[in-house]
Write a structure and sequence with these properties.
Elements (H helix, E strand, L loop, with lengths): L1 E5 L8 H18 L4 H8 L3 H5 L15 H4 L7 H22 L1 H22 L11 H14 L4 E8 L2 E8 H20 L12 H18 L14
Antiparallel strand pairs: 1-2, 2-3
Helix pairs in contact: 1-5, 1-6, 5-6, 5-7, 6-7, 6-9, 7-8, 7-9, 8-9
């Protein structure tokens, strides 16, 4: 299920959403063109062991491993990773930016990303596997959206094999199914010893970011979602 957009434009130009997309794209370009790709990733990714053991990182890293909870949010593993992250931000970000205002939206986005990083560290505190991606921050945007605009109509692509099907679905269904997948996949890993140290999708980063978005959007909002919510149409 791939979201394509809302049925209506945001009431304000989402300058912060576009700025975040541009920064992510620039960092990804810098990452893939770096002379030493592994060193670049290890310099700015969040490595849970480094955070939990207070490791001081050498240049060009930001020094304290805690700062990588910010820098890792702008890095991605491959083109598909950044494409889908930025697509979700493009679709759901403008309405949340309208709620929060431009600068507060950026702060909200970063806070959710940090919350996601901390959740992943809590799941695998001794892991040496780098954690990268904006997924935790964007999961926070999804959490904010589902509690603020659950009935909004989302244009959605549902691929059935090679056949693309297009629907208008309520946000609660689109985001709810995504969230359910993250929770089921994440907690299924809990019973597998050492799974968090083996890499793969950082599901607890998604879960932590999503819960932060649900809980914190009220603290960052300067407008009421009732001014923009509406019921979906088929």
């Amino acid at each position: 299920m791939i979201p394509l957009g809302e049925d209506r434009p945001a009431p304000v130009f989402p300058v912060s959403v576009y700025l975040l997309i541009a920064v992510n794209a620039y960092v990804f370009f810098t990452e893939v063109t770096a002379p030493n790709f592994p060193r670049f990733v290890n310099s700015f990714a969040t490595i849970p062991y480094d955070v939990t053991h207070g490791v001081t990182l050498p240049p060009p890293s930001p020094g304290s491993a805690l700062w990588t909870l910010i820098t890792a949010q702008f890095m991605h593993a491959n083109l598909l990773h950044i494409f889908f992250n930025m697509l979700f931000l493009f679709v759901f970000g403008p309405e949340v930016e309208y709620l929060c205002g431009h600068l507060r939206f950026i702060a909200f986005y970063l806070v959710c990303g940090v919350a996601g990083g901390l959740a992943q560290i809590a799941f695998s505190p001794n892991s040496h596997v780098p954690v990268i991606g904006a997924s935790g921050a964007i999961a926070g945007v999804l959490g904010a959206y589902i509690v603020s605009y659950p009935t909004n109509s989302i244009r959605t692509l549902v691929p059935l094999g090679f056949i693309p099907l297009f629907f208008r679905l309520p946000a609660a269904l689109v985001i709810g199914l995504w969230a359910l997948t993250q929770f089921v996949s994440g907690f299924s890993q809990v019973s597998v010893p050492g799974h968090g140290d083996q890499g793969g999708t950082a599901y607890f980063g998604h879960i932590g970011g999503f819960l932060a978005g649900v809980l914190f959007v009220g603290l960052f909002s300067v407008r009421s979602p009732s001014q923009r919510s509406y019921r979906y149409r088929y």
